[in-house]
Design goal:
There is one protein chain. β2 and β3 form a beta hairpin. By secondary structure, the chain is an all-beta fold. It is globular. Helix content is 0%, strand content 36%.
Length: 69
């Protein structure tokens, strides 16, 4: 999914393969309904032609690309 209103890419923790290093993060997210999304940390996801830094959370079950992608 691409969210043009989001400044940071977000991925669900269950989408990451085992052994991926998740670092601490200072990012905080608030949904449109004012609910807080608790971050687990952030990781770098390397693809064929792109690298994306994404915040990892258990509250999201998909990968959301931000506007900076």
């Amino acid at each position: 999914m691409l969210d043009t209103g989001c400044d940071t890419s977000i991925t669900g923790a269950r989408l990451l393969p085992k052994g991926v290093q998740v670092l601490t993060t200072a990012h905080r997210f608030i949904e449109a309904n004012q609910s807080v999304i608790p971050p687990e940390g952030e990781t770098e996801i390397v693809g064929n032609e792109q690298t994306v830094v994404a915040v990892v959370t258990k509250a999201v079950h998909e990968f959301i690309l931000s506007i900076d992608f």
